[in-house]
Automatic annotation (TrEMBL):
Protein name: Methylisocitrate lyase
Record InterPro entries: ICL/PEPM (IPR039556), Isocitrate_lyase_ph_CS (IPR018523), Pyrv/PenolPyrv_kinase-like_dom (IPR015813), Pyrv_kinase-like_dom_sf (IPR040442)
Biased composition (Polar residues): 1-10
Residues covered by region (Disordered): 1-21
Single GO molecular function: methylisocitrate lyase activity
UniProt catalytic activity: (2S,3R)-3-hydroxybutane-1,2,3-tricarboxylate = pyruvate + succinate
Recorded superkingdom: Eukaryota
Keyword entries, A-Z: Lyase
Family recorded in the similarity comment: Belongs to the isocitrate lyase/PEP mutase superfamily.
Pfam families named among the record's database cross-references: PEP_mutase
Lineage per the UniProt record: Eukaryota, Fungi, Dikarya, Ascomycota, Pezizomycotina
């Protein structure tokens, strides 16, 4: 389903404010039963490409942010400032398109969790997920994870929900548990139910391994929407969009969808330079093509509308 973003004229002839991306995401969850498909983006360029393809929303991967912004593994290196700054840039490339962003553990106790929600809200992020790992977290598809108590997890979600409500924000709060690996399926479901009771809008069980688990968590959390993290070659089998919808999921994210092909393509080109001295890049990919993908036409239009002539011959 495609959601438009029309505006109407307000008083004094000015256009009314566009619908916030968070509100649009909520409507996508409440006004349709369609599965929301969100490609993983890790920087401005990958986000621009996803927008060019025409997705209804985007997902900012934490692992991808650590890798691209910091050159580090997903082991808790990224701070709130790292993640918020990255998310704000991506969310505002096209503010009409909702962005869900990883918010790790919330970056501290209840006050820090509330601060995280407030900063993501003010940055234009439409949804965020907060997990129950310890502060020195790791990627959900690595072994050796540790989780906090269910009470601490519930406090994180409660603080996030209170911050959302205080701001009168529609930002979608997603509760993620990594307890499947550490404590089993029943405990993971118990934690998600506690998180929903504390104010979470969406449930996220990380590291699912079977269709039976997937179907059951969707049924037992109903009517709360459940998110599927589709990490290729990770703990979860590769399921298609059709399979995910049939299992009962409402959101599916693809964190590695851009990272894996980018690695292969960049590495192979660098190897060609090293071994042959040429890149063999497709001749159709010119500098102008690159700049067009990342907003050349829009930038030219702004300059022209202001009476400028700097880009007339670009």
């Amino acid at each position: 389903m495609t959601y438009t973003n029309g505006t109407a004229n307000g008083h004094n002839g000015h256009a009314a404010s566009p619908t916030p991306a968070a509100t649009r995401l909520r409507k996508m969850l409440t006004e349709s039963n369609e599965l929301i498909v969100l490609p993983g983006v890790y920087d401005g360029f990958s986000a621009r490409i996803a927008l060019e393809v025409g997705f209804d929303g985007l997902y900012m991967t934490g692992a991808g942010t650590c890798a691209s912004k910091l050159g580090q593994p997903d082991l808790g290196f990224a701070s709130l400032n790292d993640m918020r700054e990255h998310a704000e840039m991506i969310a505002n490339l096209d503010p009409r398109i909702p962005l869900i962003a990883d918010a790790d553990t919330g970056y501290g106790g209840p006050n820090m969790v509330a601060r995280t929600v407030a900063q993501y809200h003010r940055s234009g992020v439409a949804g965020l997920h907060i997990e129950d790992q310890i502060q020195t977290k790791r990627c959900g598809h690595l072994g050796g994870k540790e989780v906090v108590s269910v009470n601490v997890f519930q406090q994180r979600i409660s603080a996030a929900a209170a911050a959302r409500d205080k701001l009168a924000s529609d930002i979608v709060l997603i509760a993620r548990t990594d307890a499947l690996q550490t404590d089993g399926f029943e405990e993971a479901v118990r934690r998600l139910k506690a998180a929903v009771a504390a104010g979470a809008d969406v449930a996220f069980l990380e590291g699912l391994t079977t269709k039976e688990e997937a179907r059951e968590v969707c049924q037992r959390l109903a009517p709360t929407p459940v998110l599927l993290n589709m990490v290729e070659n990770g703990a979860t089998p590769s399921w298609t969009v059709a399979e995910a919808k049939e299992l009962g999921f409402r959101i599916i994210i693809y964190p590695f969808a851009a990272l894996a092909p980018a690695y292969e393509a960049i590495r192979s080109t660098y190897k060609r330079i090293k071994e042959t001295g040429v890149t063999d890049i497709d001749p159709s990919f010119t500098p102008k093509k690159l700049f067009t993908v990342v907003g050349l036409k829009e930038a030219t239009a702004v300059d022209a509308a202001a009476g400028g002539q700097l880009y007339e011959k670009v």
